[in-house]
Amino acid sequence: QVQLVESGGGLVQAGGSLRLSCAASRHTVNTAFRGWFRQAPGKERDFVAGINWSTGDAYYADSVRGRFTISRDNANNTVYLQMNSLKPEDTAVYFCTAALSMANMRAARSAYWGQGTQVTVSS
């Protein structure tokens, strides 16, 4: 079993920045890909960003590309989501996730999920 713990959510004004962190208790074949989803009120849980743990290759939803950056710290088994130029429509609960593959992650077939951290962007 793998535990994922998110932190860094909060309230920020439009145009501001936040950095989310997600620490994994251990690395396994099922955490080969790490990433973030988000769910706004009344919306489905949508993919935000993902990263190949081995290569560092990053993948982004069109809605956040150029504004958000996903990165990893191998030593600390932690993935980050740097969120810049935040918009009110970015308001959501952000979930850390880990999966066997990007295909599984994009399809929300991740092996592990964090509990979520609230990000609220005011206008």
Describe this structure in words.
By secondary structure, the chain is mainly β. The protein is 4% helix and 49% strand. The protein is built from one helix and eleven strands, in the order E-E-E-E-E-E-E-E-E-H-E-E. The strands form two sheets. Strands 2, 4, 5, 6, 9, 10 and 11 form a seven-stranded mixed β-sheet that branches. A hairpin with a 6-residue loop joins strand 4 and strand 5. The radius of gyration is 13 Å and the shape is globular. The termini are far apart. 32% of the residues are buried. The model has no long low-confidence stretch (mean pLDDT 96).
- Percent range for β-strand residues: over 45%
Q: Calculate the mean pLDDT score and round it.
A: 96
Topology as a string of helices (H) and strands (E)? EEEEEEEEEHEE
**Category by helix and strand content:** mainly beta
The rough form would be described as: globular
Q: Which spans have pLDDT < 50 for at least 5 consecutive residues?
A: none
Number of strands: 11
- Biggest beta sheet summary: 7 strands, mixed
Based on CA atoms alone, the radius of gyration comes out at: 13 Å
Please, how many helices? Answer: 1
User: What is the end-to-end distance?
Assistant: 40 Å
Tell me the helix content: under 10%
Record keyword descriptors for this entry.
single chain, 1 helix, mainly beta, 123 residues, seven-stranded mixed sheet
